Automatic annotation (TrEMBL):
PROSITE patterns: PROKAR_LIPOPROTEIN (PS51257). Keywords: Signal. This is ML domain-containing protein. Residues 1-17 form the signal peptide. SUPFAM superfamilies: E set domains. The keyword Coiled coil does not apply. It comes from the Eukaryota.
């Protein structure tokens, strides 16, 4: 009985030590996303596209891209200067089998959303597709840290200072950075 228990422990230890996931959440072939705010704006779909609106996967961070985000906005209008944007980036760590933060040097913290890729104003309405532009080409300090053709996780957070409301999306995708 004791022998069997020890065996079981050894097996558990072995299986948790190895990270065999190069592409967490099937990011090799498709984007994974979820909403990280609880409303009032609700996200029903997220689709990465190139600048012209054509579906793009893997995403290409060397040029501006659009995150076509379908939202239901029940009541609020968001605009400048109240609407602020913060983007966080993680890379996939094969040693720890977890996401590791990539420094963004404060460049993407609490910046004016309407002049940084959000088509303002965002108005109430259901099933609206909002094209959130993502452009790392003007922040070489960040893009130079990113290895080519790897999975990345992005948190795209919009906070409105006027209503104190948030819209947050987590987005995991295979990305080309060269
Ligand atoms: C995979 O996606 C789910 C949500 O669909 C999330 O809860 C989970 O943390 C993700 N796993 C990783 C390794 O990011």
């Amino acid at each position: 009985m004791l022998y069997r228990c020890l065996c079981l422990f050894a097996f558990v230890a072995l299986s948790s030590a190895a990270c065999d996931t190069t592409w967490p959440n099937s990011t090799e072939t498709k984007v994974t996303w979820w909403q990280c705010s609880s409303g009032p704006v609700m996200v029903t779909n997220v689709n990465p596209t190139d600048k012209k609106g054509v579906y793009e996967y893997p995403i290409r961070l060397t040029e501006p891209l659009l995150i076509a985000t379908t939202v239901n906005d029940p009541s609020s209008t968001y605009s400048s200067p109240g609407l602020k944007q913060t983007i966080k980036v993680w890379s996939w760590n094969m040693n720890s089998c977890s996401w590791t933060g990539v420094p963004t040097f404060g460049l993407l913290n609490n910046i004016d959303a309407c002049t940084n890729g959000v088509p303002c104003p965002i108005r109430p309405g259901n099933n609206q597709i909002i094209n959130l532009e993502l452009d790392f080409s003007d922040t070489p300090a960040i893009i130079n840290l990113l290895h080519n053709d790897k999975p990345y996780q992005l948190e795209y957070m919009l906070h409105d200072d006027v209503t104190n409301e948030d819209l947050c999306i987590i987005f995991q995708a295979r990305a080309l950075t060269k």
